[in-house]
Every structure is written in C-alpha cells, then in structure tokens.
Amino acid sequence: MEANFCMACGSKLESRDVDGTMRRACTNCSFVHWGSYSIGVGALVIRDGKILLVRRAQEPGKGKWTNPGGYIEQLEAIQDTVEREVLEECGVQAIVKNVVALRDQPRNIHNLYVAFEMEYVSGEPVPDNVEVDAAGFFTLEELETMDVAGFTQWLVDVAFHGRSSGLSIDTDPVVPLSGYGLFRV
C-alpha cells in the first residue's frame, strides 16, 4: 500500500526523486515518507540448560514453537519491549543481557528482528492463551520432536552455540544521551 497523505500536515503526497530514490513527498511541507518499517524482538531465555519456547496460538505460525517476542511500541525502549513480551506471553520475568542476533528482512514493510539473550529472573511458564497456547523450558533433545519454526531453530543455535557475547546495554556512556537505547561490545 502506498502512502497518499502527509503525516505532518495532511496534504497530498507525490512521487519525487529524493537523493536518487523515488519517494512519496508532501506537496505542501518538507515531509518525506521514507518507507514502512517494523521492528520485532525475541527473547532467548535459558534456565538449567533448557530454552524457553512458546507455541503460537495465532497466525502467523499457529501451532509452531517459537521463542517469546513481539513488536516494539512507538514510545517503548526496545529492551523494555522484549522484557514485557516474555512476561505477557508466558509469565516469565527475564531481563536483557545482550543483543545476540539480527534478522534483516527487506520487503514491502521492511522488517528488522532483534534477538536478545535474557537472564531468567522468576516465574514458571504459563501461556497467556491468547497469543500462545503452551509454554515451557525445553532441552535440545526435546526440540527434536517438536514443530519448531525454522527461524527459531536458527535462534536456538545462536543461544546454545553463539561464538560472541553480543552487544551489551551501555549503562554508563561517555556522553549521557537521554532517551537513547545504547548497546556496545
């Protein structure tokens, strides 16, 4: 779907060359529609050698086992999103340790997915019975008999066999930048 009206002033948008790329731009103000994007997050929570997975109760992927996750809200820090999603989907409290994987999926709505290594804090997996209908911690051997989504299989490999500690939250940046989520090696 193409944007037709300016999000800043409501005027009509036209197609215009902006720095060598055709973009939708406002006929009245300086607004340029740079594209449509979505950012997803996923949690990799390991406890006692087992990884936390949930079974999707809705499409896409209904019936598949995946890691808990979801999409960020407009005014929500990304690390808050992944912590909230884990708690909402299965009642487990976990906190962000590191960013350990990214998936870039260029398409009509360009999707970026950020996977976080999470530290288990508390709670036993209980599905929300809305987004997920089952939840638990599973061994690699148990996963072999489960219907695990392909992308989640890749993330499980990252969780158990990753060769880097990833990017950690920078809690003491050299320049305080209020409102920024900063991660570094």
What does this structure look like?
The chain folds into two domains: 1-35, Ubiquitin Ligase Nedd4, Chain: W (Single Sheet); 37-162, Nucleoside Triphosphate Pyrophosphohydrolase (Alpha-Beta Complex). The chain contains three helices and twelve strands. It has helices at 78-90, 140-143, 150-161; strands at residues 13-18, 21-26, 32-33, 37-47, 50-56, 65-66, 69-71, 93-105, 110-122, 132-138, 167-169, 183-184.
Shape category: globular
CATH architecture of the largest domain: Alpha-Beta Complex
Q: pLDDT below 50 for ≥5 consecutive residues: which ranges? A: none
Task: Note the gap between the termini.
Answer: 38 Å
CATH superfamily of the largest domain: Nucleoside Triphosphate Pyrophosphohydrolase
CATH topology of the largest domain: Nucleoside Triphosphate Pyrophosphohydrolase
Brief summary:
This protein is of the alpha+beta class and 185 residues long. It has helices spanning 78-90, 140-143, 150-161, and strands spanning 13-18, 21-26, 32-33, 37-47, 50-56, 65-66, 69-71, 93-105, 110-122, 132-138, 167-169, 183-184. The chain folds into two domains: 1-35, Single Sheet (Ubiquitin Ligase Nedd4, Chain: W); 37-162, Nucleoside Triphosphate Pyrophosphohydrolase.
